[in-house]
Design brief:
The protein is mostly helical and 152 residues long. The chain is 53% helix and 7% strand.
Amino acid sequence: MDVTGYFFNPNIHPLTEFRKRLITLENYANIALLPLITDKEYELESFLEGALGYGKDRCLFCYKTRLEKAFQKAADDRYDAVTTTLLYSKHQRHDSIREMGDELADVYRIRFFYQDFRKGWKVGIEESKKINMYRQQYCGCIFSERDRYRDA
């Protein structure tokens, strides 16, 4: 497969974390010779409004927002398929992501490539450490950061 990366993460907070993750991805893309498209808009307010509207299911809003934007970009640029790095994390709701991806595939008439990338989770961590890649300790959203440090 010919793969192109796409960065769109309005969920990441604070802005300094957003920038660290973007720079890390750009550096990795250069090393890996990965074509990369970045959306550098920091849409914190619209993300928070949408996430708050979903209550405890705020992750579903995040998945939907990010996947829909990826499908829109793929349709605009005529890509054959879409997948997501969300499928790499053992902390995300794979069934929900897959369901949303399949629904968006029907809407945009672009294939959703589902694969359980969690199988490579440990290898990915080891590889990222070898190249001294910045590694975050939470998904990126302010709610996740709060939950991570609440009892610390």
